[in-house]
Write a structure and sequence with these properties.
Elements (H helix, E strand, L loop, with lengths): L1 H32 L18 H9 L5 H19 L2 E4 L1 H17 L4 H7 L6 E5 L26 H8 L3 E6 L11 E2 L3 E2 L15 H8 L5
Parallel strand pairs: 2-3
Antiparallel strand pairs: 1-3, 4-5
Length: 219
């Protein structure tokens, strides 16, 4: 009888302790994370709201230059990345040079708009990729501290194919360690923040990339 009562008492104490920990944790998390954090600056250039295919069409039909597009996206990154910490490496200068070559090629009239669309459907469009795919000369850490100084010696096949399609790589985005965890936080670049509420995480492993795409919509 005594043994049975002791067992029940332990169970009650365990449940009570669990409840106390749950309540205290909830209060602490509310105190620390209840706000919405920093607000994202509003979108000023509507190019940021266009799809990749729409931008590609505007570039090859000379409604906008590739340089203008790349500069617009670079400016937005510089504006919000101090808040979100999504981009961990970049090739902005090289991307602008690539964009200038694209504009010169289009202006030359060597190919028709139809041929450009067929051969290089994303000509002049900037794109980013997560820090686990190789882009020549850029960070290739996969979020691992032991790889903090590693730079990609060559492009991954997917990046090479994007280049063949005319796209311009210009940024590397944050990931979780080894791309295996549920938030994009690591000891190399730190944590990426959610643009909807910078007190919240962004998920993983492509958290930096996903939130990076969200920053164009002004959230």
């Amino acid at each position: 009888m005594t043994s049975s009562w002791t067992k029940e008492f332990k169970i009650i104490c365990q449940r009570l302790l669990f409840r106390v920990v749950e309540v205290v944790s909830s209060v602490l998390f509310w105190v620390v994370y209840h706000g919405s954090g920093e607000k994202m600056p509003p979108i000023e250039n509507l190019l940021l709201l266009d799809t990749a295919t729409a931008i590609a069409h505007k570039i090859r039909t000379r409604k906008v230059t590739s340089v203008e597009v790349v500069k617009t996206f670079i400016a937005r990154i510089k504006e919000v990345n101090p808040i979100l910490n999504c981009v961990v490496d970049e090739r902005f200068s090289e991307a602008l040079e690539d964009a200038r070559k694209v504009d010169e090629f289009i202006q030359s009239g060597v190919k028709s708009v139809q041929d450009i669309e067929k051969d290089t459907p994303f000509l002049g469009v900037p794109f980013s990729t997560k820090d686990c795919l190789q882009v020549t000369g850029l960070s290739h850490t996969a979020g691992l501290h032991c790889r903090r100084n590693v730079k990609a010696p060559q492009d991954a096949d997917t990046i090479a194919l994007m280049r063949e399609a005319g796209a311009i790589p210009f940024a590397i985005t944050n990931v979780s360690e080894v791309c295996m965890w549920w938030e994009s936080n690591n000891t190399v670049y730190g944590r990426s923040n959610n643009p909807y509420n910078t007190n919240h995480i962004v998920g993983g492993s492509s958290g930096g990339e996903v939130r990076f795409s969200d920053i164009w919509d002004g959230s």
